[in-house]
Design a protein that fits this description.
There is one protein chain. The protein is an alpha/beta fold and 380 residues long. The protein is built from 14 helices and nine strands. The protein has a seven-stranded mixed β-sheet. Strands 7-8 form a two-stranded parallel ribbon. Strand 2, helix 5 and strand 3 form a beta-alpha-beta unit. The two termini are 18 Å apart. Belongs to the 'GDSL' lipolytic enzyme family. One of its GO terms (biological process) is lipid catabolic process.
């Protein structure tokens, strides 16, 4: 496998790699029949082998973040209702028929677990190379993906591993934590002194390099999410009220924060169009969760929501002063809230986004140039 560029190698990944090699040494043997079954691993008539997830708290509740309860840097200990199953990629995985996706650090190194799909995502993960022992940055997650794909080549024939990788989906959702860090620590973050375009360009260039890296590793189906409207999240709105740093519009959103996020999404969308033109055999989908969440906020009753401003699980004004430190403190009707905690949507909101990403309904054109259902059926 050709690898482009140099990536940070995280020590925990080395431990996992050693465990996986141990399983090979201790007698796991696979036949040509296994190779054949792997190569034809479609589900529900789809042309998809598996799903591999990379990202931040939009894809991980903390289960895949080492020592998260002790070292988390947020005011919210539970960025979802206690299960990754309430997050967008897992909801989409259910629609595909994939139910065995394991967190990277929860696997025991067996071939079947890799074939079933892995979640490399880590709460608080950033695009900027700021990963540490408690969470893994974009580059560190890419290194873990590379190691896993190389192990497939060791345990399968090269042809079967290639076909499996090409027919799998790689799901990327980054950027949210970079912008949260920027706006929550803007007095100490030098990037705040630059323009929205400057910051977005740095992030999007790294995301583009990540997609090129995955392409070089034989990925041909990629989903890349934009960043949701952070200016509408309970914590950002509360911070703005405290500092008078931004103007809150009629929907309770801070426009200047959303404008920064919009610039990132616009550039990311443009770069994905260019990548699709450059790689004629690749199918890269951009999903605009920003517009999806704003559509829900603008028409809450239509989508079944009562509260678009306050967190279901949090303390203080709009649940935004202290995040979800126990799921027992959550509201009784989470399905009526757009926001679960300080920065993250509820399962109800994610379910609407998942359906729109899959079928174009009830929110059209969330994903482009085609839906995830169409991506699943696309032959590579």
């Amino acid at each position: 496998m050709r690898i482009r560029g140099s990536l940070v190698h995280s020590p925990p990944a080395v431990v996992m790699l050693m465990c996986m090699f141990s399983s090979i040494v201790h007698g796991q043997q696979y036949t040509e029949e296994t190779d054949s079954n792997v190569a034809a691993n479609g589900r529900n008539g789809s042309l998809l082998s598996s799903l591999f997830i990379l990202g931040d708290s939009s894809v991980d509740c903390g289960d895949n973040t080492l020592l998260y309860p002790l070292l988390h840097g947020r005011l919210s200990l539970y960025p979802c209702n206690g299960s990754d199953s309430s997050l967008l990629p897992q909801l989409i995985a259910e629609k595909i028929g994939l139910t065995s996706i394991q967190p990277f650090y929860a696997q025991n190194g067996s071939l079947n677990e890799i074939l079933g799909g892995l979640n490399f995502g880590s709460t608080q993960a950033t695009i900027m190379n700021q990963g540490g022992f408690s969470h893994q940055s974009l580059n560190q997650q890419l290194r873990q993906v590379s190691e896993s794909m190389q192990l497939l080549q060791l345990q399968l024939s090269e042809k079967a591993a290639l076909e499996f990788t090409k027919s799998s989906i790689f799901f990327l959702s980054f950027g949210k934590e970079d912008y949260i860090d920027l706006f929550l620590h803007n007095s100490s973050n030098p990037m705040i002194n630059h323009s929205a375009q400057y910051f977005a360009t740095i992030l999007v260039n790294q995301m583009t390099n990540a997609m090129r890296y995955l392409y070089d590793a034989n990925a041909r189906k990629i989903i890349c999410l934009g960043v949701l409207p952070l200016g509408c999240t309970p914590r950002i709105a509360w911070e703005s009220n405290q500092t008078s740093d931004g103007v809150i519009n009629g929907n309770g959103c801070v426009d200047n924060v959303n404008n920064w996020v919009l610039e990132y999404n616009r550039l990311l969308d443009e770069h994905i169009v260019q990548l699709n033109a450059e790689f004629s055999d690749a199918h890269i989908v951009f999903c605009d969760v920003y517009s999806g969440i704003l559509e829900i906020i603008n028409r809450p009753r239509f989508y079944g929501f009562e509260d678009t401003k306050s967190a279901c699980c949090g303390l203080g004004l709009n649940g935004a002063m202290v995040g979800c430190i126990s799921t027992e403190m959550a509201c009784n009707q989470a399905s009526g809230h757009v926001w679960w905690d300080l920065f993250n949507p509820t399962e109800a909101a994610n379910s609407i986004l998942a359906e729109a990403a899959w079928s174009n309904q009830p929110i059209p054109d969330l994903c482009r140039p085609f839906t995830i259902h169409e991506l699943v059926k696309t032959k590579t």
